[in-house]
Design a protein that fits this description.
Elements lengths: L1 H16 L13 H4 L2 E5 L20 E7 L7 E4 L2 E6 L2 H16 L10 E7 L2 H14 L6 H4 L8 E4 L15 H13 L4 E8 L8 H9 L6 E6 L11 H4 L11 E2 L5 H5 L4 H14 L12 H41 L7 H24 L6 H16 L3 H4 L2 H12 L9 H13 L2 H25 L7 H35 L3 H12 E2 L7 E2 L8 H41 L2 H7 L4 H7 L4 H26 L5
Parallel strand pairs: 1-6, 1-7, 2-5, 7-8, 8-9
Antiparallel strand pairs: 2-6, 3-4, 3-5, 10-11
GO molecular function, one term: microtubule binding
Protein name: Dynamin-related protein 1E
Organism: Anisodus tanguticus
């Protein structure tokens, strides 16, 4: 049995050492919450040995862990909130409990759900008796059931909770009754918590707050043990047999009566071993309870609790093991994402930076090549945006009869054209082709915007880079600088394509125009001279506009095919092949300090990695503890 209870206690000690106190932190699954524990619940005065109320004795949950150490070691206490500080003066332990309570609640009578974790270490059980005895005297002169169990249950975690109350006293909030009940419920409501429901024998059991709450959170009674105190303080002629024998209120487990030390005993420093002997004599010689003596007292309660705890732990070890293994896998996966600590030498740092750059570049290329979404937006520029922009060009207005006449007339100068207005054609075509610059440059800018967005997205998706905000910024700046250069080159190239169309017109297209203008087919297939054309009439300029429009449409079809090729060649292809080339050359020139600055991690991620590492260490220790117990194998 000790190996089972000791196993849970060792895991709980590891939880405490590594900061897992249960509840609150949803970032990690809590191993503490998955472990069996024992919580003591009662009214505010159930633990007081005499009628000397001192307000709320416990204003924060006190998680007390008792540890048997090797012989020869000094007895001491440690708090979870100030680890590695040992208290050998238990007057200071009492002061620290009070100070730590006030730190959270203020110097008021308010309560707080934040637990105080206290560990007591002693090389022998008698030493634990002495320590806890002194602690009892110093902590508000109280003697709750949990301290009565100390001689019999070593290496166990006990949780002492604030007492339930029905009314608020002066200095407390109006919600104090509900606040205390909710706090206690968060502990005893957990399916892994064994409940010691403590009620005073000199009060009606039907009004017991502890029993009422236990019944609500544990309706089957599997986890509840009823404890009856103050049997020695009942009025003469009365007894608690109806409760102890299960007639007044039956529980699944038998009721256990106990007798604590009196206030006078505490004041006289009567030790707990002597107190337990007196408790045994009380039941053995009691005319009311003598027949129940073998099943009464703190020692029997501890044995009963230990036996049940052993079965309780056995039943839950498989689920605890499953939680541990699942959590280890999850934490190791997250540690891989967060990355391991960075080496300090320059060579390793440079290698790390280059590897991170390659990881980013790989994601960026996947976006372009279709492995990840986003690259298709570039095709959307060519298939939708560019054709739509070309269709919206104002050629109808530019090639209207009025504008054609104006441009042709201006091109003729003082000498009107004699046959065909060649200079007028050239001016009209050059003017029309200039309109193509706008959609062409807009395509370059649109692709540039998509590439910049993919850089930003790729940096965000690169898990390895999340640790290093400085390197993220450097990669983003270098990538955007490179994309600017690619955009400039792309813009130059597409402007050249438009200018090339203006610099040399397609001759074959215009060679057909005079024939079409001067000949018309005749019956029998022989052409005849055309009718005289009014070279300054409206139809003449409309025909010129129509011819220019046909030529411009031909050029538009050509540019619609060539512009995307130029943009892809100058921008997309270059981005795939050499986005970080210049950055690589600059990185190679940096010294150790500059490299270290690039690998300056986000403090939040450093903290997350540290917490993951601590939690991973906890779960691995817990796994090793379970594996070390022979019965598991």
């Amino acid at each position: 049995m000790e190996s089972l209870i000791g196993l849970v206690n060792r895991i709980q000690r590891a939880c405490t050492a590594l900061g897992d106190y249960g509840g609150g932190d949803n970032a990690f699954s809590s191993l503490w919450d998955a472990l069996p524990s024992v919580a003591v619940v009662g009214g505010q005065e159930w633990g007081l040995p005499s009628a000397h109320p001192k307000g709320i004795v416990t204003r924060r949950p006190l998680v007390l862990q008792l540890h048997k150490t090797d012989d020869g070691q000094q007895e001491y206490a440690e708090f979870g909130h100030i680890p590695r500080r040992r208290f050998t003066d238990f007057g200071m332990v009492r002061k620290e409990i009070a100070d730590e309570t006030d730190r959270i609640t203020g110097k008021t009578k308010q309560i707080s759900p934040v637990p105080i974790h206290l560990s007591i270490y002693s090389p022998n059980e008698d030493g634990l008796d002495v320590l806890v005895f002194h602690l009892n005297v110093l902590i508000y002169c109280r003697e709750p059931v949990m301290f009565s169990l100390v001689p019999f249950v070593v290496n166990l975690t006990l949780i002492d909770l604030p007492g339930l109350t029905k009314v608020a006293v002066e200095g407390q909030s109006e919600t104090i009754v509900e606040d205390i009940e909710n706090m206690v419920r968060t502990y005893v409501g957990k399916p892994n918590c064994i409940i010691l429901a403590v009620s005073p024998a000199n009060q009606d059991i039907a009004t017991s707050d502890a029993i009422k709450l236990a019944r609500e959170v544990d309706p089957t009674g599997e986890r509840t043990f009823g404890v009856l105190t103050k049997l020695d303080l009942m009025d003469k002629g009365t007894n608690a047999l109806d409760v102890l024998e299960g007639r007044a209120y039956r529980l699944q487990h038998p009721w256990v009566g106990i007798v604590n030390r009196s206030q006078a005993d505490i004041n006289k420093n009567v030790d707990m071993i002597y107190a337990r002997r007196k408790e045994h004599e009380y039941f053995a010689t009691s005319p009311e309870y003598g027949h129940l003596a073998s099943k009464m007292g703190s020692e029997y309660l501890a044995k009963l609790l230990s036996k049940h705890l052993e079965q309780f732990i056995k039943a839950r070890i498989p689920s605890i093991t499953s939680l541990i293994n699942k959590s280890i896998d999850e934490l190791e996966s997250e540690m891989d994402h967060l990355g391991r600590p960075i080496a300090v030498d320059s060579g390793a740092q440079l290698y790390t930076i280059l590897e991170l750059c390659r990881a980013f570049d790989k994601i960026f290329k996947e976006h372009l090549d279709g492995g990840r979404p986003g690259g298709d937006r570039i095709y959307g520029v060519f298939d939708n945006q560019l054709p739509a922009a070309l269709r919206k060009l104002p050629f109808d207005r530019y090639l209207s009869v009025q504008n054609v006449r104006k441009v042709v007339s201006e091109a003729d100068g003082y000498q009107p054209h004699l046959i065909a207005p060649e200079q007028g054609y050239r001016r009209l075509i050059e003017g029309a082709l200039n309109y193509f610059r706008g959609p062409a440059e807009a395509s370059v800018d649109a692709v540039h915007f998509v590439l910049k967005e993919l850089v930003r997205k790729s940096i965000g998706e690169c898990q390895e880079l999340k640790r290093f905000p400085s390197l993220q910024s450097a990669i983003a700046a270098a990538s955007n600088e490179a994309l600017e250069k690619f955009r400039d080159e792309g813009r130059k190239t597409i402007v050249r394509l438009v200018d090339m169309e203006s610099s040399y017109l397609t001759v074959d297209f215009f060679r057909k125009l005079p024939q079409e203008m001067e000949h018309t087919p005749q019956k029998g297939g022989k052409p005849e001279a055309a009718p005289a054309v009014d070279r300054y009439g409206e139809n003449h300029f409309r025909r010129i506009g129509s011819n220019v429009s046909s030529y411009v449409n031909m050029v538009s079809d050509t540019l619609r095919n060539t512009l995307p090729k130029a943009v892809v060649y100058c921008q997309v292809k270059e981005a795939k092949q050499s986005l970080l080339n210049y950055f690589y050359t600059q990185i190679g020139k940096k010294e150790g300090k500059a490299l270290a600055e690039l690998l300056d991690e986000d403090p939040a991620l450093m903290e997350r990695r540290m917490q993951c590492a601590k939690r991973l260490e906890l779960y691995k220790k817990a796994r090793d503890e379970i594996d070390s117990v022979a019965w598991v194998r």
